[in-house]
Amino acid sequence: MAFPYPVDHAIPLFLAPMAGVSESPFRRLCRAWGADVVVTEFLSAEGIRRENEATLSKLRFGADERTIGVQIFGAEPAAMQDAAALVTDVFQPEFIDINFGCPVKKVVRRNGGSGCLKDLDLVQEIIRAVIRGTHLPVTCKIRSGWSEEMRDPVKIALRCQDAGVKAIALHPRTRTQMYTGHAHWDEIAAVKAALSIPVIGNGDIKTAEDAARMRRETGCDGVMIARGSFGQPWIFKQARALIDGQPMPATPGVEERFQIALSHARMVMEYEADLIGAALEFRKHLGWYVKGLPNSADLRKKLHTVNSFGEVEGIFAEYLASGWMNEVEAA
Ligand SMILES: Cc1cc2nc3c(=O)[nH]c(=O)nc-3n(C[C@H](O)[C@H](O)[C@H](O)COP(=O)(O)O)c2cc1C
Fold first, then answer.
1. Looking at ligand 1, which atom is closest to the CA of residue 97?
2. Which of 119-133, 222-236, 259-273, 316-330 has the lowest mean pLDDT?
3. Which residues contact 224 (CB under 8 A, 6 or more apart)?
4. Does 30 participate in catalysis according to the annotation?
5. Catalytic residue among 102, 116, 160, 220
6. Which tens digits make up the pLDDT trace of 147-196?
7. Of all protein residues, whose CA lies closest to atom 26 belonging to ligand 1?
8. Do the beta carbons of residue 46 and residue 79 sit within 8 Å?
9. Which of 105, 143, 228, 294 meets the CB 3.0–4.6 Å disulfide criterion with 327?
10. Are 54 and 30 contacting, i.e. CB atoms less than 8 angstroms apart?
11. The model's pTM
């Protein structure tokens, strides 16, 4: 199935759009570890249209992030069209993605994100408006429906395809489910069988084995990973190998993990102007990088209080010197 933007592999791997996580440095890191395509976090069409500084600053990306999509949300077709036009002219990503999946109250209250799923005529209007605003391919990301009663991913996906999107990512939960229960992968298979455009599967991939299993069980054209990339960007390299029928590369040991975390920190330092704010924001990544290590509760506690990037190297060095890592390397 042909994707509407350049991809390096027949079954491309996607870093999912994630507010506060899929920012430029993390996207670069995941590209380097084998994600074929990355997507920005969702950005408000109103914010883009009004050239809100904070919103526009999130649109900066480097050449090494391509292939990249910019994700926008909003329930006002005219605003979505203007936002798509501005993003196209100024930032020139490979594609524009529309968010029809976000479940958070602040967004759905104004019918944005998954709020749109209650009104499929509006979904189509928005898609057509965005297409009018850009010459780039337009894609979208959906949930399976607003509520259990309205659950109908095939119908939603077909309406999106009819309106002109060139690929679709499905997170098969309803809005009401938020992040509870489990992602219904059988719905990815059903949407794949019904559509003629590429279908990207998403939801509950925690390991590289899960990624390969989703591909096998659903026949999806691409695999999108969100939370499974937290603190383990190498999941993309491992998933690539398994999907291609190769042996899975080993999971990095503790020292290498720390090196990867530090290289991620350096990328953040290059990208962000406010280094103190960025260090505080980076605490969550540090927590994810050390998850599962022996005595990691203590290590996490220390990392969760860092106020500067300079402190991180010392904390890692102290942990390595303490000998805790021998336990995990031996395990
Ligand atoms: C912290 C966080 C932020 C997210 N932000 C977005 C977003 O901006 N746009 C979007 O389409 N989905 C967003 N999502 C949903 C994910 O892209 C994905 O659909 C969901 O987490 C299921 O995939 P997973 O099980 O691999 O995590 C977000 C998820 C998380 C955990």
1. 11
2. 316-330
3. 13, 14, 15, 16, 169, 200, 201, 202, 205
4. no
5. 102
6. 999 999 999 999 999 999 999 999 999 988 888 899 999 999 999 999 99
7. 226
8. yes
9. 294
10. no
11. 0.96
CB of residue 21 inside a 6 A radius of ligand 1: yes
Sequence-ordered list of residues with C-beta below 8 angstroms from that of 181, at least 6 positions apart, any chain: 173
Task: Identify whether the C-beta of residue 151 lies closer than 8 Å to the C-beta of residue 177.
Answer: no
pLDDT in tens, 38-50: 999 999 999 999 9
Place of tokens 């996490």: 300
Q: Which atom of ligand 1 is the closest one to the Cα of 113? A: 11
Preceding amide of 67 cis, omega within 30: yes
Q: How many CA atoms lie within 13 A of 196 on its CB side?
A: 2
The residue whose CA is least distant from atom 6 of ligand 1 is 18
For tokens 């997507």, what's the residue? 39
Residue 176 CA to ligand 1 centre (angstroms): 15
- Tell me how far the alpha carbon of residue 15 lies from the centroid of ligand 1, in angstroms: 10
Residue 205 beta carbon below 6 angstroms from any ligand 1 atom: yes
